[in-house]
Every structure is written in structure tokens, then in C-alpha cells.
Amino acid sequence: MIKRTLVTMLVFYASFISASEDLPLEYFIKHGDYLDLQLSPDGKHLAARIRIDNKVILGILSTSEMKIVGGVRPQNNDIIHTVTWANNERLVFEYAEKRFSLDRPVPTGELYAINYDGSKRTMLYGYRANDAKTGSRLSNKDDVLASQEVISLLENDDRYILISEYPWDKNGSRYYDNRVRPAIISKLNIVSGKKRKVDVLPHRSSSALATKNGQVVFMKWQDEEGKYHAAYRDDNESEWKNLEDVFNVEQNFIPRGLSEDEKFVYMSGGTSEEGIYTYFKLNLATGQYVEIFEPHDTDIEQVVYDNGGLPAVGITYPGKSQYVYAKEETRTSKLHKLLADAFKGQTVSIASHTRDWKTLLVHVRSDVNPGEYYLFDSESLAARFIWANSSWIDPRLLAAMKPISVKASDGETINGYLTLPKQKSGDQKPPLVVMIHGGPHQSGTRDFWDYNSETQLLASRGYAVMQMNFRGSDGYGERYKRIGYRQWGGKMIDDINDSVKWAIEQQYVDGDNICAYGASYGGYAALMTAVKEPDLYNCTIGYVGIYDLQYMFTESDIPNNWGGKAYLQRVLGSDKAQLKAYSPLYHADKIKAKVMLIHGSEDRRVPEINSEALSEALTKVGNPPKYLKYSQAGHGVFDEEDRRELYQGLLDFLDENLKN
Fold it and tell me: What is the pTM of this model?
């Protein structure tokens, strides 16, 4: 029944999509319309972050009629950043504000509350809490130079929530959330904004896990060397004890949640020699812990929880998305199997649910589907279509991502994706754009089998797109990540170039028409691939890229962040000769490819001095780059008008240098 209902809905929806082959640039540069939805605990309302006229507003809809009943429209160029239902009546939300000269709104940590019908809007927390609305200094709220995170909704208390406060650190004339000070645990009234300090965590760069009644019983933190630790206590009055000492668990195990009866804690961490990321169940009474999921070859990237708190479904990406289910079968895992079968070939997750788990908000996505939402009745097994994100996109006109595996020159297996354009003239092989992801090494920095607007834009213009998860990428276990350390310009680049040669040998692409493109580390790698293989590439495009690795220590904001210096030492090292050897800036004379550079003047992570220096060096050797500069952009261009110029310029550059 469920499959028939959902398939019928999909066919019905698709019948309204234009079959036009014309895919305007705007389709791919626009930010999404419905960014995310959340179901109220009683299921009567939906909270939606909706983009309208380049603003992100909060809309509250009735689930019965899908009509707007309340919401918030921010002023100026501010946007709604996060939204959480505190109870059936009231929501808490954050703004991201247009500040300084940046084009991208910046989250400020301020917290607001509002009733679902738009009434009783209150500023609860933040650096302007005292004089919010009227400017009165008679408020009972304090101005707080800190960010916050909700850690417990206090299930049996509709007036309070529990938050972690992260005091800001001042650098020059600005404040930053660098997590260099211990977090403060506070109880916050979501009606009046009054708060009371409950505790201070004893470590820097720490966060807490609380029970539904507000007992902070687990804590995790990262030391200055980048190692993760966790601690446990019985209640708020007890002393903290290191988790590995109390229960003899691995050092890298991180607590993620508690069971409904609070007798078990669910932890994540690496297992096996590969260090594959999975989940564990720890019995707090006996100290015994077991793996929750059946064996899997790549990291679990997302979890669907059961109504008892147990991680019931893990989503992993060895190629296309795959599901691994908990050994302990639950009602949620059974329901998910039905949903996965109904939406075969797509990725199904549960985005939200009612408190009784009767109604689920199901999110469905794929390589050609930017995301759809359905309301699903877990008793009748009926599903109702709600909305499609980027609703102007017709999935039938997009190109499929093909999972591929390549043997690198040293025998390491490199996984990734190849997207071939849907239309080719005769047997002509398409030109190739090698699109290189950023990071590297951080959690989530890898390419996924998922909708990617850049991939689809390039494919729609007749280009094949290759995205490889070279060594050092996340998602394939800790060992795979570590073998990329201090190999930024070495084996990591070899992996990319070996993959390009493989695609040519397999006759997927035209080997005489290849361009590399990437942002951040990807921008760096796009230039280094052309340094190491000058005759392989016609062109290369560096977007907010690092071109002198020594600038990472002297110009970037990374050394100012907690653990930042240790991170750079770990992944780059301090051998100046090697840093220079791995820096495109010092090899401009080896680059035969035509070069395009894109940078934002307000970039603190990778300051523009990188592109300026490389542009000068390339010009000196007779290969002046095409340079797109954005005065209000930071580490990436956000403004849609600027994005239109950027991507049109990128397409023009590709057309000039590749025979399409």
C-alpha cells in the first residue's frame, strides 16, 4: 500500500514539471526555497525555513491544510538560521545577520522565541538582549557576548530549556566564537528570557549531553592536540570521570545520546584497523558495550533514531547511499525499510517526528533530486507530499552520478563519482572537469552521491564531471584520512591525476580537453594537479584556494582557533622545504594550463593574498590568469548576483579553453 501511494504521488507531481530542455543558469545558482522543515511535537504544525526574494523567513504552517498561520520575516538582509520546537506552542530560533562588509549573513548566537501563531515574540539571549525592541535598560535580561546551543528541551517543563553558552574571544576589534573558553551550562526561560547558570564545564572546546530532565551527565571535548575525550557523571552534583577510565572504552568514543530509560548511552567512534566510523551501545550499569549496526565498509554519515533513542538506521556511502540497520530490530527500522523500498534508488531519512512517533516527516533525495518532504502516518502507512526543495528543478533533465573506483599508482583504492552529460553529439567523448572537494580531513569533507548544483550545471553544459575522494578525505575510516596527512601536494594530488588518466583510458572522456576546478583545498589542488602534470590539463580554476602553504600558519584564522596550530602541524608539518615544494606559488613556471582565480576580499580562512601572489607570479612567467574578485565575499561567494557573474565567468572560461 505504501509503495503504491508514494509512487502515485511521484508520478502525479512529475506531470506538472516542465519537460523543457532549457536549463537556465539561475536554476543552479539560486539558493533553495524550502530549506528545511520541522514537525511540532503534536504534529499539528510545521516550521519551515523558506527563501523568498533572497531572504530566509520562518513560516509556520498547519499540517491539515498547509496554510501559513504565523512566522517571522527578518529585517534588512538578515535570515532565519536555525529553528527548534520547544513545545507544541512555542519555538526558539536564531538569526544570521548581515554584518560588516560580508555578503553572507553571520550567525551571532542570539536566540528568540515566538508562539506558532506569531504572538509573544521575545528576544531571549544574545549581545543585545538587554535593550531588544525598545532600547530600554530596564530589562531583566543580560547582554551576553557568547553563542549558545540548546542541549535539552526539558521534556516535562514547557517554560525552560537547557543551553550551553560559548563565550566569545576578542581578536582586534571583533569577537569570534573560537571555543577557546570553557562552556557554561544555563537554564533559560523561553517566555521571559531570564536565565540561571547551572554549571561550567571544566574543559575548553567542550560540549555537553544532557538528559531530558536537564541532568548534564556526559561531556566531550577536544584538547589542543586535536584529540577527543569524553567524561561521565551520575548527576549534576557528582564529579566528572573520564569515560575511558570508568568504562574502559576507546579514547575516540564520543557520546551521542541516551536511551529513553537513560540506562544506556549511544556512542560513535572508529572500529577495526581501518577505523570505520560506527555506533556503540554502552550499558551504564555493567560497563559493557557492543556495536549497534551490522558490519559496513565505510563510515556512517547519518543516523535515523528510534523512538527509544536507539540509532536504528545508519546511512553510509560506499558509492550510492546504502543503509545499515541495527542488530536489534525496532519499529522504526521496519518502517524505514518500507520507505526505502517505496523510494528505491534514493536516500530516505526521517527529518522530524511527533513525540509519539505516529507522524513522521520523511526527507527523500538523490543525485538528481534536491530533496522532497512527505508526511507519513506510521499507522496507516499513508504518505502525503509536502514540498520539493529547488522546486524549479526537473530531475528528469539531470545527469546521473556513476560511482567509480580507481587503483592509484601505489595500489590504494580511490572511490569517487563520474557524471556524464545526458546528450553527446554522435560518439564524441565529452570534455572533463575534475571537480575537487575542499577540507581536507575534517568531518564531512568528501564527495557524496547526492544532488550537487555545480555538478549538474557543468553536466547541463555538456561537460563530464569527476569527483574523487582522494586519500585524506573523510568517510572511509580513520586510516584513509591519516594517510593523507602531509601529502597535500603529494599522494593526494597523485590520486586525482591517476583517476583522470583512468577515465581517459576507459574512454569515458576526451583526454585532450580537461580542466581542474575546486574551492579552498580544492582550489589549491586544482593548481597543484597542473603543476605535477603540466601536459594533462588545458585549464585550471582555483576558487578561494591556498597557493602558499606557509600562509596557513601566518595569514589564516586557523592558528587562532582552539587546536588550530596542532591541526596544521599534524596535517602539513613544519618542514619549510616541503611546504614550498607543495605550494603552487613557487611553481608558476611549470603551469602550462590557462588559469582562472576566484577570491573574496573578506576571506579570513584563506586570505586573498594567496590569489594576489599567484596572479603576480603567473603574470611574470607569461601566463596571466583570469581573476574574479569579490569585495564583500568571504570564504565563498554567497550573493546571488555575484554568483551569477561567477558561474557565467566560469562557464565562459571553460568554453574558451575546452572544445565542447
Answer: 0.92
pLDDT digits (tens, 9 = 90+) for 90-129: 999 998 887 766 778 888 888 999 999 999 999 999 887 7
Burial of 285 (0-12, 13-18, 19+ CB in 10 A): exposed
Q: Which cell is 652 given?
A: 565562459
> 431, 421, 419, 373: which is closest to 397 by C-alpha?
421
Residues 178 and 160: beta-carbon distance below 8 Å: no
- CA–CA distances in Å: residue 510 to residues 134, 169, 429, 492: 64, 51, 5, 23
- Pairing state between β 122-125 and 169-171: unpaired
Could you list the beta-strand ranges (E) of 98-245: 106-115, 122-125, 146-152, 160-167, 169-171, 174-176, 184-189, 195-200, 206-210, 216-222, 228-232, 241-242
Gap between the Cα atoms of 383 and 635, Å rounded: 40
Q: Which residues contact 135 (CB under 8 A, 6 or more apart)?
A: none
Beta carbons within 8 Å of 347's beta carbon, 6+ residues apart: 315, 321, 364, 365, 366, 449, 450
Return the amino acid letter for 201: L
pLDDT of residue 640: 87
| Per-residue cell: 362 | 520523511
- Show Cβ contacts of residue 137 under 8 Å, excluding neighbours closer than 6 positions: 130, 131
pLDDT of 10 higher than 70: no
Tell me the residue type at 539.
C
Q: How far apart are CA 493 and CA 456, in angstroms?
A: 24
Cell of 604: 579570513
User: The cell 524550502 sits on which residue?
Assistant: 34
Instruction: Give the three cell numbers for residue 150.
Output: 540548546
DSSP at 440: -
Helix (H) or strand (E) holding 643: helix 640-657
Query: Grid coordinates representing 347?
Result: 536516500
Beta-sheet pairing, 594-600 with 514-519: unpaired
Query: What number of other Cβ atoms are within 10 A of residue 213's Cβ?
Result: 12
Q: With bands split at pLDDT 50, 70 and 90, how would you rate the model's confidence at 140?
A: low
Return d(Cα 658, Cα 573) in angstroms, integer: 37
Lowest-confidence segment of 9-18, 291-300, 513-522 by average pLDDT:
9-18
Q: CA-to-CA distance for 428 and 439, rounded, in angstroms?
A: 35
DSSP state letters, 349-407: EEEEE-TTSSEEEEEEEETTEEEEEEEEETTT--EEEEEETTTT--GGGSPPEEEEEEE
Q: Residue 157: CB partners within 8 Å, gap ≥ 6?
A: 214
**pLDDT tens-digit readout, 217-265:** 999 998 888 888 999 998 999 999 988 888 877 768 899 999 988 999 9
Cis link prior to 295 (omega < 30° from 0)? no
Give the residue carrying C-alpha cell 535570515. 79
Report which of 510, 415, 524 is spatially closest to residue 468, judged by C-alpha positions. Answer: 415
Q: Is the pLDDT of residue 13 over 50?
A: no
Give residue for cell 540497520: 325
pLDDT at site 516: 98
For residue 318, is pLDDT > 90? yes
Q: Are 496 and 487 in contact (CB under 8 A)?
A: no
Bridge partner residues of 374 (DSSP): 362, 385
